[in-house]
């Protein structure tokens, strides 16, 4: 049940921000992190603003899931991060455990 909720919210979050997020990913400006958030790979204030907006919305969803399922926010973020990294298209950036970025 918990995984279903995470998958549904992650799917909703991808579609809600697909245009801006997708463009930023295609340009190599942002990538998926293991904590379920988007990280800035390269770029300035506008890129950071897009990432911050996406992350604010993702965190709200993750907090809702954590409260609803009685799971910690950290666990929800970790699971969402795994799903997001798995779903990342080839050629887009993902962040490795050591903090470095690489194209998938």
Can you walk through the features of this model?
Pfam families: DUF1318. Residues 1-18 form the signal peptide. It comes from Oceanisphaera ostreae. Keywords: Signal. The protein is of the alpha+beta class and 104 residues long. The chain has helices spanning 2-16, 18-26, 45-69, 73-87, and strands spanning 30-32, 38-40, 93-95, 101-103. Strand 3 (93-95) and strand 4 (101-103) form a beta hairpin. It starts with a helix and ends with a strand.
Radius of gyration: 13 Å
Count the E strands: 4
Strand content: 5-15%
Please identify the structural class as seen in this structure.
alpha+beta
- Tally of distinct domains: 1
Fraction of residues in helices?
55-70%
Physical arrangement of strands within the biggest beta sheet: 2-1-3-4
Low-confidence regions: 13-19
Total DSSP helices: 4
In short:
With 104 residues, the protein is an alpha+beta fold. The protein has four helices and four strands. The chain has helices at residues 2-16, 18-26, 45-69, 73-87, and strands spanning 30-32, 38-40, 93-95, 101-103.
What's the layout of helices and strands?
Blueprint: H1 2-16, H2 18-26, E1 30-32, E2 38-40, H3 45-69, H4 73-87, E3 93-95, E4 101-103
Helix pairs in contact: 1-3, 1-4, 3-4
Protein name: YdbL family protein
Pfam families: DUF1318
Signal peptide: 1-18
